[in-house]
Structure formats: C-alpha cells, structure tokens
Design a protein that fits this description.
mainly alpha, 65% helix
Length: 304
C-alpha cells in the first residue's frame, strides 16, 4: 500500500487549514452634515475664538512697546521686546507676590478640601437629625456677596490683629470656598454605591476607616474638580487682598498687577507682560487636569 505524503510549508498553512486573515480596513464613518450640525460647529468655533482671542492678543501685545500698542494694536510686533517680562518681574515684585499667592492658595486649598470632604461625607453618607438644615445653612453661604462683609471683617480683623497678614485673607478665602466645595462633594458622596458602605460596616470598619479607605478614593474626581475651582478662584482674587493687605511684601499677585496702572501714567506693555506671567500657572494646571474636571462635573451631577 503506497502512502503519499504531501509536504507543505508550515508558514503557508494551505494543507493544514491555517490561512492568514488580511486585516480588513474599517470604513471611516462619514459625517452626515445637517443644518443643525453645521450650526453647532459654527457656534463652537465662534465660542473658541471668543475665548482664545483675548489670550492670544494679550500674549502678542506683551512683546510690543507702548507706541506700537496704540498705533498698531492688532498686528504682530516688529521686534520682540523681551525686556518687558524682565522689567515686569523685577519692578512689579512679582516674585514675592507669586510666592504669597501660592502660599495662600495652597493653604486654603488644603483646609477647604479636608473640612469640605468631612462635612460632605457627613451630609451625603451619614443619616442624622438636622441634616437638611445644616446643608441649607452651608448653601446660604453661596448667596452672600463678598462686598457685604468687607467692613465687618475689616473692623473685626483690626481688633484681632489679623489685618495686614496672610492669615487675615486665608480665613475669608476658606469661608467663601467651603460652600462650593460642600455643594459639589455632597453630590459625589451621595452617588457612591451604598452597598460598599454596608459591606464595610458588616466587616467591622468604623466610620473613619470608611471615610479614608472607601469614600475618599472613590471621590477623587470630585477632589480634582473642587480643588481646581478653589485654587483658581483664590489665585485670581483681588478685592479681599487689596483691602486687607497694605504691606508690599505681603501683597498677592493680583494686587501686584494693579501697580502697573497709575492715576497719570500706565505702562501697558509691562502690564500685559505681568498678566501673562500671572495666568500661566492657572493655564498649566487646567490643561493638566482638564479631563478630570469634565469627568468630575458629569459624575457629580448624577445625584445630589
């Protein structure tokens, strides 16, 4: 009996049944343009120009001289005036002002995150009498304008020796930041699955362990959102810092920028250079955490 052995290449696989499948290119999804879609894109492009045009114009003008700003404000600079940034940094004392703003913003951020998280946990997870009244009390803080408390705070801080100190502006910063933090973080804690809390209680975890090991890690997106809002708001705050701080060495960055505007003369080129230096940190921070902010705002709006 003759047996015929067919030899084939292992890589070809024709006799063994192994055939290489060619990668099929997925057809690109075609955009069906409609009137509504066109209007939406036009509106988005318009809003993009509205928000980016002032920033780009400020950056361009910061490299010009005062004469160029008045004669040709919307054309590129002929010669880049890099000295505007050097003069703005040294003459405006932006170094010490930046450190003061950073210290005030970071301390306020840390205190507001800790106090806001603990209060929000008590309001969103725990159940106790007077819970709704306490939440309403904190939400009323969002309706009080800063201008209404300037005179009482100034007289009280003057008697307590807190005027012309960084502590004197950290306290009102913290007070006005807490209502927003509590409002957003309460929605995050309410959206957490209660099955995790119940299982942790069954396993013998106390309230502090539930807060630090379960609630805080799950609500980290909320911390990104509230932290970003708190930091930017305190970094750009001007009114309280201008009223409570009179010493040049303790002034924050927004107050230092006001020095470039005088009653009789204003150096616009150096002022715009100082503005660019002031907004760079907030732009960098926002670009780094923009995705977390969008996800956090969406997640925090589910329940609350």
């Amino acid at each position: 009996m003759n047996t015929k052995v067919e030899t084939t290449s292992f890589y070809s696989g024709e006799k063994l049944g192994f055939h290489r499948k060619k990668r099929e290119k997925k057809p690109k999804a075609k955009i069906h343009w409609t009137v509504g879609l066109v209007i939406t894109y036009v509106f988005l492009v318009f809003m993009l120009v509205i928000y980016l045009a002032p920033l780009l114009w400020t950056f361009m003008v910061s490299f010009k001289t005062n004469a160029e700003i008045f004669t040709s404000p919307f054309t590129p600079p002929r010669i880049l005036q890099l000295g505007n940034y050097i003069v703005a940094w040294t003459a405006g004392h932006l170094g010490s002002a930046t450190l003061n703003s950073f210290a005030v913003s970071v301390i306020t951020l840390a205190l507001s995150m800790f106090l806001g998280a603990t209060i929000s946990f008590a309001l969103g997870i725990m159940r106790w009498k007077g819970q709704t009244a306490v939440l309403t009390y904190f939400m009323m803080g969002m309706m009080i304008p800063v201008h209404c408390v300037l005179i009482p705070l100034f007289t009280r801080f003057a008697h307590m020796g807190l005027s012309n100190t960084l502590t004197g502006i950290i306290i009102p910063y913290l007070t006005f930041s807490l209502p927003t933090v509590i409002f957003i973080m309460t929605g995050f804690f309410k959206s957490l699955p209660h099955e995790l809390i119940e299982s942790a209680c069954i396993d013998g975890a106390n309230i502090y362990q539930i807060f630090w090991k379960i609630a805080v890690p799950l609500a980290r997106t909320g911390f990104f959102v509230t932290g970003m809002m708190t930091f930017i708001a305190n970094w750009n705050e001007l009114l309280l810092a201008m009223v409570f701080i009179s010493d040049d060495e303790k002034k924050t960055l927004p107050v230092a920028l006001s020095k470039f505007v005088g009653p009789y003369n204003t150096n616009y080129s150096q002022m715009f250079a100082a503005i660019v230096l002031a907004i760079i940190p907030t732009i960098v921070v926002y670009c780094c955490f923009s995705n977390q902010i969008v996800d956090g705002l969406t997640a925090g709006a589910v329940k609350g």
